[in-house]
């Protein structure tokens, strides 16, 4: 049902560096790039994550209450993704930990303020 998730950016070069390092942890690679946008996908996946300079020329902004959820294969991957996001200029929205029995999560924002949650369900 979902083909991709598109997030706005005000700095495509910074976003490229952030997502290249972050999404490689999910074995994702750039599959499309032009002067306004970049799309990453994992091998065998029909769903991708893209960043894009807004078409209307206005500044990109994040949505209040919006969040992209990522699925981790282990607690270790969850912690690694969270740490990588912070090292690449992201900010903490909730440190890794068990949220309820069997559910581990962490939350962060990318340099443009887009919010992500990463989840591991035991």
UniProtKB/TrEMBL annotation:
It holds the Pfam family Glyoxalase. PANTHER family: BLL2941 PROTEIN, GLYOXALASE FAMILY PROTEIN (AFU_ORTHOLOGUE AFUA_5G14830). Residues 1-121 form the VOC domain. It comes from Lacimicrobium alkaliphilum. This is VOC domain-containing protein.
